[in-house]
Write a structure and sequence with these properties.
The protein is α/β, with parallel strands linked by helices. The protein has one domain. The protein has eleven helices and eight strands. The protein is globular and about 90 Å long. 36% of the residues are buried.
């Protein structure tokens, strides 16, 4: 009898201990909220991008009726100050290293749930047209057209707890983080980490074969919301990076593919052409991700459908844009080469 009582007492304490641990796990995950079921991290206000593909759509679904604008893109587009878009309320659904086939799946999923935006902004990624096809990574429920997992299923897991602990310890997987309003921010970095490329410029390493057929995914994305004003754009990219790509001999094929995409959109601006912005080294830590202050200029150009740091694909034909790229790149490469030679002599 006593052994049975001891066993029951032990079992009771064990279950109580497990219950406390599970409750603590759930409570911590709810407070840090790494997947944005609630309000994000209420403890520090800093939210890291551990699983943007899941967190972005989970946050959006219950709020979608509040937004008449959506942004599809990569981490570069996540830095657009979407709160500055006048006349619309925009949700930024951009994810790290996103691809057009992923955006199409998200768009179909949202459309099936009655979401029809008035404005759609799409970041077109140069790297998507080059080399092997990237894997399409979306949450299973998006691919299957099902409901997202419940907060209990997600936050009673050790994976979510690991995200929460890493958030509180400052272990960020990227140089970006999200503030309490789900706006992406760049971490402040020391000057020794500043972007500082030097000449002479060398060809971009392989693979660099251009796959023009991948333009069709961006065209298919535009078709998902036919009544929306559709703005496509290529974000700013350092002239050093574009010049290195141009030396592979694939620039013309790439621009021809972009021409297919541009024709499907109501507006299309290209901020990656060499300009005063992209030929400078300021405003970016890697030549691809630009600060929100720079992206404010980009956004202003998109909403006005004109910018002095972009080329308008609807106002110039492919031949003219290709020639303009070559002229600007030739001048830039010649200048950087001369500067490199002068520096070597010194």
């Amino acid at each position: 009898m006593k052994s049975r009582q001891r066993f029951r007492s032990y079992l009771g304490w064990l279950l109580a201990t497990v219950g406390v641990i599970v409750a603590a796990c759930f409570a911590v995950n709810c407070l840090v909220d790494p997947l944005w079921y609630l309000r994000g991290n209420v403890l520090t206000g800093v939210n890291y991008a551990f699983n943007e593909r899941l967190a972005a759509i989970i946050r959006f679904l219950p709020r979608r009726a509040d937004y008449d604008c959506v942004i599809f893109g990569t981490s570069r587009a996540s830095l657009l100050p979407d709160e500055k878009i006048e006349g619309y309320r925009c949700y930024n659904l951009s994810v790290s290293d996103g691809t057009a086939p992923e955006y199409v799946l998200y768009a179909k999923y949202l459309r099936e749930r009655g979401y029809m935006p008035r404005l759609m902004i799409v970041d077109v990624k140069r790297a998507e047209f080059i080399g092997p096809q990237q894997a399409v990574e979306v949450p299973d429920f998006v691919r299957d057209g099902a409901s997202p997992p419940s907060i209990f299923a997600s936050y009673l897991s050790l994976d979510a707890l690991d995200f929460s602990i890493r958030t509180l310890s400052g272990d960020s997987p990227h140089h970006r983080y999200y503030d309490e309003d789900f706006h992406a921010q760049l971490e402040v970095r020391s000057k020794r980490h500043n972007y500082n490329p030097k000449g002479p410029i060398k060809p971009q390493p392989a693979p660099f074969d251009v796959h023009a057929e991948r333009a069709q995914a961006y065209i298919e994305l535009r078709r998902q919301f036919p009544t929306a004003r559709a703005i496509g754009y290529i974000p700013p990219e350092s002239a050093w990076r574009i010049a290195a790509f141009s030396l592979t001999g694939q620039l013309d094929a790439y621009l021809a593919a972009i021409g297919q995409v541009a024709a499907a959109y109501d507006e299309f601006l290209d901020f990656s052409i060499p300009s005063a912005l992209t030929e400078a080294k300021e405003g970016t830590y890697d030549g691809s991700h630009y600060m929100r202050a720079v992206n404010a200029r980009v956004l202003a150009g998109l909403m006005a459908n004109q910018s002095d740091i972009a080329v308008d694909w609807h106002k110039e034909d492919l031949a003219a844009i290709t020639a303009l790229y070559h002229r600007r790149l030739a001048v830039f490469i010649e200048t950087t080469t001369a500067e490199a030679e002068a520096s070597t002599k010194k």
